[in-house]
Please model this.
Amino acid sequence: MTGRGGRAVGRLPRQGLLGALLFAAPIISLPAPASQEIHLTIADIGGPGFSAESVSARLSGPGLSRLELHLGRLALAGRAWRDLSLACADTRIEPSAIRCGRGRLVVHGKSVPVSFAYLAAAKKLEFSVTPAPAEQWRVVAARLADGSWQATVTINGGRVSRLAPWLHAQWPRIGQGRLEGVVKLRGAAGGLAAVDAAVSVAGLAFSNASGLHAGDKVGGALRLRAQRRGGRWDWRADLDWRKGEVFWQPLYFAEGGRHLTARGSLDARSVTLERGTLALDGVGSADLAGSWDRAGGRLADLTLSAGGLDLGGLYRVLLQPFLQQTALADLRVRGAADLEWQYRDGATRKLDLRLAQADIEDGRGRFALHGLNASVPWTARGPARAELAIGGAQLLHIPLGAVRVPVEMNGSSFALGRLELPVLGGRLTLEDFRASLLNGSWQWHFSGGLTPVSMEDFTRALDLPVMHGTLSGVIPGVDYRDRTVTVDGALLFKVFDGTAVVKDLVIYDPLGRAPRLNANLDMRDLDLGLLTRTFSFGNIEGRVDAQVNDLALSAWQPVRFDARVASSAGDYPRKISQKAVENISALGGAGAAAAIQRSFLRFFHEFRYAKLGLSCVLRNGVCLMGGVERAPQGYVIVKGGGIPAITVIGYNRYVDWDELLERLKRITQGNVQPVVH
Amino acid sequence: MNTLRPNYPALFLAALLSLWWMPGAARAADLEINTPAISALKQSMQQRYGQLAPYYGNGAVGLTRDGMVALRDAGAVPLAQRQRVSALVAQENQDRAALYREIARANGHPEWEAEVRATFAQRWIDKAAPGWWYQGANGNWARK
Model:
């Protein structure tokens, strides 16, 4: 303790009273005469962890029982107060002690009851503050023979908000909360040397100004033991958070058990976690080690390893909140995960992930993986190989079968060799699949092919009118970047015994909120027999070519195209059933079908035709219809040829697209007879 | 008892409709253009509106100057709801971003997206109900 510039009045040694209060120096031993007054002023005074300036004390009254102490400034553990005064009307100065039972401490205009006792022989100070009913902070401090000191702070119903002056200005503000417990401090001339705290908190509420970091009714217990070794502290902590909810954007922890045991060290530069175990109810537990850079205010490194995590809980509690802006924002996840994560200098160095029997389904039905077993030993640098075994999957409603996927990884690049995915009875072959993560967004590329898949299954999967036959094809280079899929060259499919070429295919944001597709389609020699049987449309024998130019889909619905279907060139049987004629007529509204019913033509079930065709230019929800050639006030859809021949003429040039789809649906579902007037 | 309270859902729908029927904004961009994606987004936003409305009303959520929404005062949301409202805001912003992009694309001019967004941003604020919070050109929040 140092005292400077003191001026003692009366017989009290210069440091006596303050020394007693601050338990630093010997006490006076002389009882004072009844009427005597003692004044003491000290410019400043200090000790381990505290300093006081402009100190003045006055003892007066009968037996010097009235104490008035004023501190111009008091600094304690790094925080300071101005103008503190302490008054005690029942001060007792005994040969070996000074006691005050009913004192009042005034800070910032607030007066709180205090009591204290200084026991000279034991060099022990007991100080107790009762700032509110049912709230007491009691300090018992003593100086030991070897010059060291110890203090025990006992807190009963202590308001957590009292600690506000010691909390970091950036931290959330404490609203409510009560503390119970004991904090033991030990120190020597060099300052604080050991801390042993066992405290519990109940009903803690805190929030920052924006409300993005907040907690309510938080209850739990903390056991902390720390010892200083030179410039370093070694600590052990056990934190048991049992009650209450916390929102720490974007994470939310509802009522439930969370437990952290940890040990580590602390120095001027960093906080080191040598070993810790974190347990979260509903997720699992993880072993942790790492360090926090105090100067930089950032996580310097962290190693986390966990086994048998509940993947569903992990996703819900810790992953989903960070994935709100991605296609993974709304998943249903089940399964178990083992995880080993190494993070250093702002980046993941190693991520070893193992999944067992995981199911991952998109809440909006765009994709799903079932029975996923995976081992992904990823490192930031150097090659590694991941093994994925997928029991089944679904992508944009197309089911994919079981497959094993070996992935060659090299930093942020991923590659597959040749991969065959079972799809709808056929196989989708992926060649040379390469993906990379560049500036936070994915790019990938592949080429491949499709061995015949069932059109029936394919169309059912896409909720299209059920078609028969098979679909096979060649997929040239497919690229994905900037959320856009583009295809180099033409996709070539075999369908309805003919060929279909898809050119200029671009899909924007395929998994986004507003997927958009642009393409040109050219189909040749489609077998109308297969096509019409499919649509339960009535039978048409023959072949057609179809072009769909400037096709644009928005959210997978057509919004624009120039489409034309017409008989293929060449020599082949051309026959059309009466039912098909009626249906074609019904597509364009009422009209030609009526003629059949009224005429002798109704005796024929089948007619011959020379050519047929239909065109639709779709703009703004309206189809501008056309046929194979013009007709008076209409267009020819089926042009007769041979015997018996029939010509079908359409008269409606503008047909609402939705209405047309509705009619087609009615017809192909076969549950409504064509309307004949 | 609440006969004098503004009918916010109706105001919102009116705002939404007026946005679609707004003539001649963003150069020649047709903001009333409709596509299945726009319909789907519109429907999604209208459904979400019911959940967000109380938070527009009490100032928890405000309209930003770039045509999005923001959780500007999370303290006005009960703690247990904050993550949900925060997620609603993120989803609403995804829809809005997709909407502006889709309108620009549907007009055949993806490069118009920024202008479409700017026009919408101003209109959302113009049509906001009294008491709602919005972000001024200087970035400060103000109450309508």
Observations:
- The helical segments of chain A are 16-21, 311-319, 455-461, 528-534, 578-587, 592-598, 657-669.
- The interface with chain B takes residues 207, 209-212, 214-216, 245, 247, 249-252, 254, 321, 324-325, 329, 508-509, 512-516, 554-557, 559, 621 of chain A (CB under 8 Å).
- The radius of gyration of chain A is 42 Å.
